[in-house]
Design brief:
about 140 residues, alpha+beta, two-stranded antiparallel sheet, two-stranded antiparallel ribbon, 6 helices
Length: about 140
Amino acid sequence: MNAAQLIDYATSTGLLLSVKGDVLKLSGNRVAANDAFIRDLRQHKAEVIDILVHQPVRAVLPYALHGGGGGQIIDPDGLLSAVAELHQRYGKRLNLESLATWFEQRVTQVWPVSDHWQIEQERTAQTALQQAREVQ
């Protein structure tokens, strides 16, 4: 994997990459940190640090559709924007239960090591998702 793919993989699997100086820290869902990921992360460490330090934060949100299909949406404006985009694009075909499960996993695996701003964004997105589930 290249640097961008490593960051996307980490984000989508609940791994949290953070930078302190020249040190790249890994926390969160450590089960997803398989040998190939760690090897590639070491190989592309400088590039990953550069992207994390100089690129804006973006949301990577996996989704599923009723009847099959799905993928992930990458939104530069955050999770709330990603949920709104998915809901607008797919409507009732969007599997909101799957999204709710993903958010519940984030609560237990990622939030304990996340920063305050990210937590507030995710709580807002989770509230919007709950409201969308009630409408369906």
